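We read letters as residues; the integers encode the fold. Take this protein.
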Amino acid sequence: MAKKKRSALKRIRQTVRRTVTKTLGRSAARTAVKTARAAIVSGEDVATAVTAAASALGKAAKRGAIHRNSAARRRGRIANAAAKASKAT
């Protein structure tokens, strides 16, 4: 079996590091969005949850974990849901 080249080993290290970073960013964004949606439904501490979700989505988009247009779309949908819920009450 042939040895792996140094450049291949470096690419493997980079890929592992990048995968971990992006997975954590995606996971944090998903959790924040889920928390914001739950807060909107329950009606308590909505502003803080929506702000946290928008921040997490922005950070994930900046890191490249999700596409920036996808992050913007999700932020908009959460904000619209929050506005609709606050208008209904």
